Amino acid sequence: MKKLERAEVIILSYEDYYGVDELSLWKPRTKKIKIEILNYSDDFLEFEVDGETHTILNPLRMELMNIDGVIFVAYKIVHPLFDKAKFVVRTDKTKIKALDALKLAKENVKKKVFEVTSKIREALKSGERKPDFLSEEEYRKLKSRY
Description:
Layout: E1 2-12, H1 14-18, E2 33-40, E3 44-50, H2 54-65, E4 70-77, E5 84-91, H3 98-126, H4 136-144
Antiparallel strand pairs: 1-2, 2-3, 3-5, 4-5
């Protein structure tokens, strides 16, 4: 495992991280996301994320667990009052390198986010409609409550 002589730091703006929101579905954060690589080797990667918690780290962890060759993935929120977490990835280096697994997982999460966003856009364009699992009467009752 390589110990860094100086910390490698990456700073991302909200748009770099999440992309541009054409529909204004979310409000940009004021805090920039800072990623600091603490330790790395072909089969191990440890980094700290400042400016984000479960929102992106849990989907990233779940996606990494689905990649063949990933042995262990975990993250820990440093303290509930701070948007800071430590993230660890361990892989079987004969199958995939830790950094490559992280890049692949990031792309997979990004594709899923764009897929959900496009489905939301389609739903907004099509407008309100009764779900198939409700009868007309149940739908009217439910709608009258809101």
